[in-house]
Amino acid sequence: MKKEIIFTGTLMSLVLCLTAQQPFSNLFLENEFTNEPLASRGGDVHVQDSSICFRYEPPDTTTEIPYSKEFNVEFTESGRTLKNFTQEWDDTKKIWVNARRLSFTYNEQEVVIELVYEYWNKSFGVWENYARTNDSLTNNGQSGQSIVQLWDDATNDWVNNFKVSNEFDAKGGITRRLEQDWDKATLEWVNNSQTLNELNPGNQVTLALVQTWNDSAQVWVNSQQIFKNYDPVSELLTEEISNVWDSLALVWIPDKRMLMTYDANGNQILFIKQVWDFEAQDWVNKYKITDDFDDMDRHVANLQQNWADSVWVNVGMSSTEFDENGNPVHDEYYSWFEEAWHKALRCEHFWRLLTLVAVSEVDRQVKCDIPNPYPLGHPFHCDELALGKTNRLEVFDLSGRKFFSKSFQNQEVMRINSPMPTGFYILTIRNEKGVFYHQKLTIFND
């Protein structure tokens, strides 16, 4: 499965992100957080109960200072997080203090449709509302509209803040993204920016035109254009060039470029960001990120380096260890100074088995006439299903993210028809007693 790891800040930015200290905007705009993949290992579902992180004050890398704790306290039957809260260390009082709490609501396909963010009021010792997002999905399960609201203590109610609306083509590709802000005076949505996408036959964005709204002139004004190039064989993104609009000269000016390299399994192993040098009239390196994967395609190490004149200079480094089930259990983060690596943070993650599939899958022998590779929309049928039982067909990618879910009766003809990228997937069929059939498939778009 393709893994893209894009690191755009300092080492501490990565640390804060991975220890769930994300800023408000990231929580509501980043798909990776609100729809994080399930940890499915050979069909078994593992969930992360908690994490604890300790920081260091280099050059002392032996004295550990408590930093953060994160708890997933409630899950769906399939392992999606329903409730999560974080604590931070109060170094003055030497105690753990509540920081934030998240509550997730899912639809039938287990896509997040509501996320509520609460913060801990230290003065009163209670959780208080801060923000929430609501997603309206299309018939294909895509986000058609997302509305973020903030809590208003004066009215004791949620108040609109901003909205994102997507428009799609017949294949499900996003052709337009509109961002709007809530005007408290007029109680109306007002335009902020829009992104117009051009797509290739594979439904990938090749050109994104970003425009901002000029309210006085009531027109859209060019802001940025982004060109994206893909490998013709793997269809992975290999280059992204961004230009900014010069409103005085009325021309596009080169701004930045990103270059991506992948291994044979589609894992992103190198990311380079460059900026435009007007004097040299050429691209100049800014920073790069090198990622290492083991023979099981697990991300095990990360190295960030900045470009200084003519050489790469170390900035940050991380490493991850896994348990026997493939769950990440130990992370370490290092910063570079005085020509040496110094440990900055250590995190421990604690997992448990939520659903044991391997035991139940041998209880019933079911034969399904599923072609492999499987073309999306192709009908198939499974024999020897129990009469009078409702079953559920589900499709996951190799990281455990669910792409398709539908209930059916024993003699129904089935089709997998949700939009999904060409790649490797796990198909499962379950009933109330658990999963009794699973198969690894290559799914492709015609």
The strand count comes to 28
CA radius of gyration is 24 Å
Q: Mean of the pLDDT scores?
A: 84
Helix % is: under 10%
* Overall outline: globular
Q: DSSP strand (E) fraction?
A: over 45%
- Look up the CATH topology of the largest domain: Lipocalin
Task: Give the arrangement of secondary structure elements.
Layout: H1 11-18, H2 24-29, H3 31-34, E1 39-41, E2 44-57, E3 60-75, E4 81-90, E5 95-106, E6 112-121, E7 126-137, E8 143-152, E9 157-168, E10 174-183, E11 188-199, E12 205-214, E13 219-230, E14 237-246, E15 251-262, E16 268-277, E17 282-293, E18 299-308, E19 311-322, E20 328-337, E21 340-355, H4 357-360, E22 367-368, E23 374-375, E24 382-383, E25 390-397, E26 402-409, E27 423-431, E28 434-444
What are the key terms here?
five-stranded mixed beta sheet, globular, single chain, mainly beta, 62% strand, 446 residues, Lipocalin, Immunoglobulin-like, disordered N terminus, 4 helices, 2 domains
